[in-house]
Amino acid sequence: MKKGITSIFILATMQNLSAQEKESPISEVLVQGKFLELPLKKVNENITVISKEEIQNSPAKSVDELLAQFTGFDVRRRGGNGVQSDISMRGSTFEQVLILVNGIRMNDSQTGHNSMSLPFDLASVEKIEVVKGPAARRFGQNAYAGAVNIITKPSAEDNVIISGSGGDFGTYSLGAATSFGGEKFRNFVQASTSSSEGYRYNTDYKISNIFYQSQYLIENGKINFQAGIQEKKFGANGFYSSPNAKDQYEETQASVVSLGINKKFSNLNINSNIYWRRGQDEYLFVRNKPEIYRNMHIGNNVGAEINGSYLSSFGTTGLGVELRKEFLASNNLGHRERFVTQLFLEHNFSFFQNKLNISPGISWANYDQEGDFFYPGLDVGFDFSDHHKVYGNITKVNRIPTFTDLYYVSKTEAGNPTLLPENAVSAELGYRFQRNNFLGKISGFLRNSDNSIDWTKENLNDIWRAENIGEIITKGIEIELGQNFSSFLKSYSVGYTYIDSKSSQPDNAISRYVLENLKHQFVAKVEHKFLKNFTNQLIYRYNERVNTGSYQILDEKIAYDFKNLNLYVLVNNITNSDYTETFGVPMPKRWFHVGFTYSIGL
Question: DSSP character for 580?
Fold first, then answer.
């Protein structure tokens, strides 16, 4: 394994040294913050931006599978093709990562298991912005270890895109999307369905999406609207409870509606949103026998926010307020409510001809039952030149337990109403080199958590219990290199993350989430272009988990482009590896897909 990693690094370095420099759009990428929109090279955090082209060329069928191809992510899937996944980051739990759709939160107060229920397919995504490291002072609850903002965008071009695919295990997908309107009023509509008989007993699924988005340009601003709903029905063989629970079944619905206005007045920029996110989750312990054990949860998040940034001779000041009401009706968790008030304040100072940037900030959150919480933080960055940058940040974060953490009860799990909020102090120091079409990053990070929440048990026959397990010290290092070319070798990238996590809980305790993190993670991608219209992307992943060993995965996508038609063959797990990502659920072996997209201009 080590020789393989070394060889890939050497190959990447040689290609970098021998390649002719060519201007790249990397430096032009804009990151959409809560208060500021900045070029990627000006951001004083560890930010990853996944472009539209990367998404289209990737051997992934869903957003969660795409994120698994980037180092620092620990995507613990149950099944394939986006059926059910938990998104963790740098040794965190899935409850500690915030998922956003066009800036609107998808996490709910019931559980983070359903945060990746997105009302559109991967082909509709324009780009994905990832904040590695805590972002709670800007986004609030759940941005404990990071945030993922999935961005879709209406086009000014009138067209229709039809897509379809088929594969092993009776798998198929069909989708249609259209953009229409003009320069001032743009619309996007997408509908899709996918289904599979399952790669083993009781892992069949059917997923349906419909999504609408519009953008209306006004003087010095725009009005944004989005609405979408997703429905999933799937067999959940061993997904929860116990690996022996082979007949579990689940149906979920997730919908989101939001209306936002962005308006600029001279040096003042205002961004406001109102939103409603609804989630419904029905779980059966034995499929087709709800009388044995059935859970039904219906949750609603209704909120409004307004954020403003003002540019003055002293820098840029950001101020925001968010109000959110969370409702839950459940036959297991009961009827629960929360009201959350949050204030955000941040200021950006620039010195020495904008080479030194300092951004202190703080947010205050009030939960009507849990009380007040403060999230202070500081980002600092220094540009030695247009190509070399060092940055550092430190911040304090908190996370309130979900209603599942507090109140869930079953034959194999017990929540804990006395749970305390977990909190942490996080810090990162990094260096970024960016020149033309090459980007390299290295950083070290530390997270010191207290009152950490996990589900644990002392022996295999016990039930899982939610507990504050005490202090956890997580530290690590992350390295990323990537470059684009205009030759046969179109691009390469390599990434490595090392995590060391130490807990104060007893050594004999069995951890369900917290102490099952990845210790070593290595990702390498190579993309070639050949015979004019063919592209081939190959992705290798090595994951070594703390207690359950290591596995290697190789995925590939070969695509052919001819005018408005794209044909592809996608193969997941080429090496037919045996592996699990969470809770002992066996993941699919080799899985072939063939598909197409066809664009029609209107």
Answer: B
CA distances from 420 to 57, 114, 225, 405, 474 (A): 44, 23, 37, 10, 20
| In the predicted structure, residue 9 carries a pLDDT above the cut 90 | no
Answer positive or negative: Cα dihedral of 88, 139, 309, 216.
positive
Count other Cβ atoms within 10 Å, centred on residue 117: 26
In this prediction, residue 513 carries a pLDDT of 79
Q: Write down all domains in the chain, each with its CATH number in brackets.
A: 2-601 (2.40.170.20)
pTM over 0.90: yes
Is 219 within 8 Å of 202 (Cβ atoms)? no
> How high is the pLDDT of residue 7?
39
Q: 18 phi and psi, to 5 degrees?
A: -90, -15
Q: Decide: residue 274, CB within 10 A, 0-12 exposed, 13-18 middle, 19+ buried.
A: middle
Question: Strands, E, within 240-387: which ranges?
Answer: 249-265, 268-284, 294-312, 315-330, 334-351, 356-367, 371-383
* Residue 381 near residue 354 (C-beta atoms within 8 A): no
Which residues 6+ apart lie within 8 Å of 506 measured at CB? 458
* Residues listed for the chain: 602
Task: Specify the DSSP element, H or E, that contains 392.
Answer: strand 388-399
Q: Say if residue 243 is exposed, middle or buried (CB neighbours under 10 Å; 0-12, 13-18, 19+).
A: middle
Q: Are 567 and 557 in contact (CB under 8 A)?
A: no
Q: Record the tokens describing residue 179, joined without a space.
A: 């953009």
Whether pLDDT at 141 is above 90: no
The b/e string for 437-463 (b: 16+ C-beta within 10 A; e otherwise) is bbbbbebebebebbbbbbbbbeeeeee
Tokens of 256: 């989101």
DSSP string, 431-467: EEEEETTEEEEEEEEEEEEES-EEEEESSTTSPEEEE
CA 597 to chain centre: 25
pLDDT above 90 (res 209): yes
Question: CA torsion angle for 138, 380, 148, 427 (degrees, to 10)?
Answer: -90
Helix (H) or strand (E) holding 139: helix 136-139
Cβ 258 vs Cβ 275: under 8 Å:
yes
Mean pLDDT value across residues 445-466: 90
Measured CA to CA, the distance from residue 77 to residue 86 in angstroms comes to: 6
Percent of the chain with pLDDT over 90: 75
Read off the tokens for 90. 């740098």
> For residue 512, how many other CB atoms are within 10 A of its CB?
17
Look at strands 356-367 and 249-265 and give their pairing.
Answer: unpaired
Task: Look at residue 32 in the predicted model and tell me its pLDDT.
Answer: 62
Percent of the chain with pLDDT over 70: 93
When the pLDDT of each residue in the chain is averaged and rounded to a whole number, the result is: 90
d(CA 446, CA 429): 9
Rounded Cα gap, residues 301 and 278, in angstroms: 6
Which of 146, 90, 27 lies closest to 389, judged by CA? 27
